[in-house]
Amino acid sequence: MADDELSLFEQEMAGVKRLQQDERVARRGGGESAQALAHRRHAAVTDSHVDPNTLSDREITPLDPWYVLEFKRPGVQNGVYRKLCQGRYEMEARLDLHRMTVAVARREIFDFIEQCYEYGLRSVLLVHGKGERKAELARSGVLKAYVDVWLRDLDTVQAFHSAQPRHGGTGAVYILLRKSEEKKRENRERFMKGRVPYEKGRVPYDSGR
């Protein structure tokens, strides 16, 4: 740059000050800062929109359409389970999964079991299909496999078994639910109705008098 041009440039820039830059947070390996990471983790924990559905959506091996589903938790009486297998309990509610995708069925089953438990229902029927038509064969086998896994993962499900032919056979399943706390309370009140509560120190009733 010529002397006269340099002198002109210095005159134009007189009084100009360098702008101060904000300090940047150093990142290692392109990762997020510790503060940002902590904020994201806190949001994940406190997010009110977190899906309460705990059922797995992992890939699963389909089951044969004629495979019999059976499951009983410890503590369920054999006689109760036998009656369930034989379809001798009245089915108080029914959910049909026909034409549902796995994602939709996952949501519907979770909500169905939750509502049945809240309403105090004990025995319900779930129809998953068995693929009698070739076009439905693969989808029904997949849904059946998911039903077998999902029902075991729900604590309110005490037992289940493939249905009798009149209720859909191996394309449906009977489900026995745990008694809800509200239903237990009602049963206790019904049992105690008209009874005199036992008081400590009181002589019990003698039927021989």
Q: Please mark out the parts with pLDDT under 50 across 5 or more consecutive residues, or reply none.
A: 21-32, 203-209
General form: elongated
Percent of residues in helices: 25-40%
**Please, how many helices?**
6
Q: From the alpha-carbon coordinates, what is the Rg to the nearest angstrom?
A: 33 Å
Report a brief summary of the structure.
The protein is α+β, with helices and mostly antiparallel strands and 209 residues long. The chain is built from 6 helices and 5 strands. It has a 5-stranded mixed β-sheet with strand order 1-4-5-3-2, with helices on both faces.
Give a description of the structure.
The structure is a single chain. The protein has helices at 3-12, 34-46, 78-85, 102-118, 134-153, 181-192, and strands at residues 70-72, 94-96, 123-127, 157-162, 172-177. Helix content is 38%, strand content 11%. It is α+β, with helices and mostly antiparallel strands and 209 residues long. The longest helix has 20 residues, at 134-153. Helix 4 (102-118) crosses helix 5 (134-153). It is built from 6 helices and 5 strands; from the N terminus they run ααβαβαβαββα. A 5-stranded mixed sheet has the order 1-4-5-3-2, with helices on both faces. Helix 4 (102-118) links the parallel strand 2 (94-96) and strand 3.
List keywords for this structure.
5-stranded mixed sheet, 6 helices, 38% helix, single chain, disordered C terminus, alpha+beta, 209 residues
How is the secondary structure organized here?
Layout: H1 3-12, H2 34-46, E1 70-72, H3 78-85, E2 94-96, H4 102-118, E3 123-127, H5 134-153, E4 157-162, E5 172-177, H6 181-192
Parallel strand pairs: 2-3
Antiparallel strand pairs: 1-4, 3-5, 4-5
Helix pairs in contact: 4-5
